[in-house]
Amino acid sequence: MIHRPTRGLDTLVRDWAAVVPFLIGIAWLLIGPALNLVADSLRDPQGGVTLLNWRDVIGNPLTRRAIVTSMTVGLAVATLTAAVGVPLGWCIGRLRVGGRSVAIAALNVAANLPATSLVFGFAAAFGGGGMITLALRLLWPEAPELDLYSLPGLVAVYFYFHMPLFVLLILPAMGAVSDELWEAASVCGAGRVRFWVRVGLPVLAPFALAGWILMFVSAIGQYGVPLALGGSEGAVNLVTLRIGDLIQFVGSSNRFERAACLSLLLILVSVGALWMYRSLLGRAMRWLA
Amino acid sequence: MLDGPLWLRIGVLASVALYGVLPLIATALYSLATVWRRKPLPDGITLAWWTSTLQDPGFLWALGRSLGISVLAVILVNLLILPPLYWSHVANRRIRPVLEACALIPFVLPGVVMAAGINRFVALWTLTSRLEATPGLLLMAIVATSFPVYLWAVDGSMRAANVLALWEAASTQGAGSWRILRRVVVPSIGTGLAAGSLLMFASAMGELALARIITGSSFETLTLWQLRKLHGTDADPNGVAVASLLSLFVLFAFSFAIAIRNRGRSVQMAPAAGKG
Fold this sequence. Notes:
The structure holds 2 protein chains of 2 kinds.
Chain A lengths: L8 H8 L3 H22 L10 H8 L1 H33 L3 H15 L3 H12 L4 H9 L11 H24 L4 H9 L4 H29 L3 H7 L8 H10 L6 H30 L5
Helix pairs in contact in A: 2-13, 3-13, 4-8, 4-10, 5-8, 6-11, 8-10, 9-10, 10-13, 12-13
Chain B lengths: L5 H27 L15 H8 L1 H34 L4 H10 L6 H14 L10 H27 L1 H10 L4 H12 L1 H16 L3 H7 L6 H10 L5 H25 L15
Helix pairs in contact in B: 1-12, 2-12, 3-6, 3-9, 3-11, 5-10, 6-9, 6-10, 7-8, 9-12, 11-12
């Protein structure tokens, strides 16, 4: 490290100059707008402080339903993803280098697909007139179709790209359930099932839970995918879509303020979830030491 | 052994791979189909959609805008994040918690919320109000939302390459920090830089929420073009298929190359909780 015998202004500049452009960017693009949202949510038309906007948001049945729907979607997506992602992550974690590289590349692409491409592909494959639905109908004419413009359909689409994201997040943690752990357990007489129930899953649990939290936050914040699915006139009523609507379409007088209230709700839920994520991982990281 | 029966693992992986690839296949078929009605496979195959879309000026302009802003985003994120990250490793360790804390902020700000906030905030100050609803602002917003993945990828790479030791060795030879960054550090963390840049590129190419709300139809990116062709009056689902496939090929090619270079190690994708 650079040895600093004296602390002067030039040392301060030298230490921190590299960070200044970044910090300016963050302050201006992230922190400033976020604080402004708080201000906006409490603003009344004359510029004073009021709780009217919050009352409008909570009192309006449309926005209330949006909040409930968004939370439900978040819970469903996170749970489904974790349930499937843990075993899948395990299988991928045990692959050799070549197969692993292909798997990771594929997961990366699936997790980063643009919302429009994803929705189109999903509809083309699993939608009402989709490839798989039609193929299924050949064998079983009464096959139910997946209505993409409904709540279960939305969850199905979310699941499609959240699952690779979850697997990518949990993959490094798979190393914690090592062969050494298994050998130690089987020397003590544990069978495979017992190993997983008493050792394997408890070790993985905090990481899986942390992943669950991230998936929940990601799901409630989605805007592009539901937009591509049905637009704001779509059948599913989400907080993010409501925010987008309030901003873009001229309607009521306090639309920006109400959008700010809804935004703050999302932010608060996300902050709470993030705090839980950090405390969870803090304790779990010793398994990866 | 711990692995479990081979047939089960292969079965799980194969079914998931199949499920994952079906939308891709359907998209590919859509881009090549003449007409596609009741049957699970298209009635006929044609390249007409590919040729017409690749010649459609609307598509080409949208593609150009997306590519342009994505490349600029990669350049910008490297300029803004690499120096402080490097400095946090070799000179001032206290930069690190600041960077990590800042990287958590985009997590709690969903795209639409950010876009809502940014436009309003920028309009408040006369100094910056000219930037409201411009592509320049969109570019900065994209970097602000997606920089964490770049940060974690490059940071992990720097730690793996032990940049501090490299720096110490090179500076005893008389090289200045800037030179060390260019000549020693950057080549050593090449894979991390490539992975981080790719993730940033992919993020920027796929951006929909920010693009729609900050600039909207005044700056039609590829995703906005696709959205219009999906739901608008001039619907062109086959064109959407072509556009989707194009971006997918590029993404996958880069991802695969980087994963191979990284030899199967996954890039750090989430905020780390431990110190150092």
